[in-house]
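Same chain as my last thread, 172 residues:
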Amino acid sequence: MWRSLRLIVPALALALALGVAPANAATQTVQMTEQGAGHYVFSPATLTIAVGDTVTWRNTSDTVHTATSNDGVWDSGDVQPGQTFSFTFTKPGTYQYFCKYHRAMGMVGTIVVQAAAGTPAASPTPGRAPGLPSTGGGGSHAGGGLAWLLLGGLGAGAVGGAALRQRRRRSN
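reply #2:
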């Protein structure tokens, strides 16, 4: 019995660790770029991703930009030419954002975050406290189903192994 527990505890820790990040999380890139003389844009202007995905904004222009959400969820601060900023989206919804320096010139964008299958979509809560920006390692529990499946399989294997050992001892 104790041998089985020694197998289950590390398996549980592994399964919980796997549940922190989605199994199929992706990273998408938005360019901060110049389109014509002095006309700065986010490209693509609208990006659709899944919960748990990370968006990386890459400044490919010759001037500083920001990626700042309208509702305070994230703010990149100044992103110098050649630099990047990343944020991991953990909640479904539509997030609009802008560049602090070029908003009046139309440098705005939208990130549409789709819920995982079977999860209802929800818009971000207006007026909530701003979150800290992520550097790509942000957490989401969208992969928890896989973790519990692995945990169940490991647990069943450990219990089955213990029962088999018990049966062998009795027959000897």
